[in-house]
Amino acid sequence: MSLVQPSGNRRRTVIDLFSGAGGMSYGFHVHPSFRIVAAIDRELGKPSSGKGRSGCNDTFRLNLNLAPMPVDLAHVEDTDIAAARRDILGGLDLDVLSACPPCTGFSRANPNNHLDDDERNSLVARTAQWVRILLPRVLVMENARELLKGNFAHHFGELRRQLEQMGYDVHASIHMLDRFGLPQRRERALVVATRLAVGAKGLEDLWQGYEVDRTATHVRRGIGHLPPVSAGERHPEDPFHVSPGYSHPEQHRLCTLRELALLQGFPEHYRFGGESLSNQYRHIGDAVPPLISHQLAHVLEWMFTGEKPELADCVLPGTSLHAEDIQPATIQPGRI
């Protein structure tokens, strides 16, 4: 393994590929040690509606004050990446590369994914192209659990092979994210790869010896404090507390945009851009939960500095998880 040193006292640089609505970036954005220097997302609309803008780049810009580049990452050449390195980083090194390719082709929510290898799945292995040229100190990736255990896990297998060939230590694991305080049962794959001498760490290392009070992961904790609204009604004090239909657990309507955002670990003040309410719902569903990415930012800072953070300091303000929800573990879970 090649050994590199932490980047000193400057804020650590982050580039976010497949940046979406900013779920991964936001967790790093609010951490004082990191700075998002670039984001890239083609922001394609829902496949059933034909080609068009999803508006996710507007959502990203509203919350991170940075406009992502609408580039198709499936058709990027080495010269393009080298130019990006020059224009974005100048003489700086890249500390963190986030790459969260679309999970649509892996997710078991689509039964065809057990039979057909979606062409978008190849974007996973193409991440190695960016790593080879940008040489980030750390790579982080989130996706559906099938990235690691599904019928087409060979895409990640190829990425892992190339990363290890380049000297990266790769840690890949699958977790139910409510274990880390997310108020929903969401099973995801998390990947951390690094050239740092300390090696790769995961969220389970951060939570070693601790667990979350289960009431903190209940839906009532996540959204029970919001005022009631009727179907189609937009709350006057929160334009994103709006719903078009009927599947709320207590009120006769679909969960509002704000309710689903809170259940997905977004802070209460997060704003959503674009012109389509249906696309705004998709911004949330496709996102890495910021409640989780903020914890990942602390894990990476631990890797850079060698100093493990206090778990209570890893809680993202404005979300349903509070520092007092963290307690000593009664049973120590093993790695998956």
N-to-C order of helices and strands: EHEHHEHEHHEEHEHHHHE
Instruction: Please give the CATH architecture of the domain at 12-212 and 289-318.
Output: 3-Layer(aba) Sandwich
> Stretches where pLDDT falls below 50 for ≥5 residues?
1-8
CATH domain class name of the domain at 12-212 and 289-318? Alpha Beta
Strand content: 5-15%
What name is given to the CATH topology of the domain at 12-212 and 289-318? Answer: Rossmann fold
Principal-axes geometry comes out as globular
Helix content: 25-40%
Characterize the main sheet. Answer: 6 strands, mixed
How many helical stretches? 11
Taking strands numbered 1, 2, ... along the chain, how are they ordered across the largest sheet? 2-1-3-4-6-5
End-to-end Cα distance, whole Å, is 24 Å
Average pLDDT confidence is: 87
Category from helices, strands and their pairing: alpha/beta
CATH superfamily of the domain at 12-212 and 289-318: Vaccinia Virus protein VP39
Please tally the β strands and state the result.
8
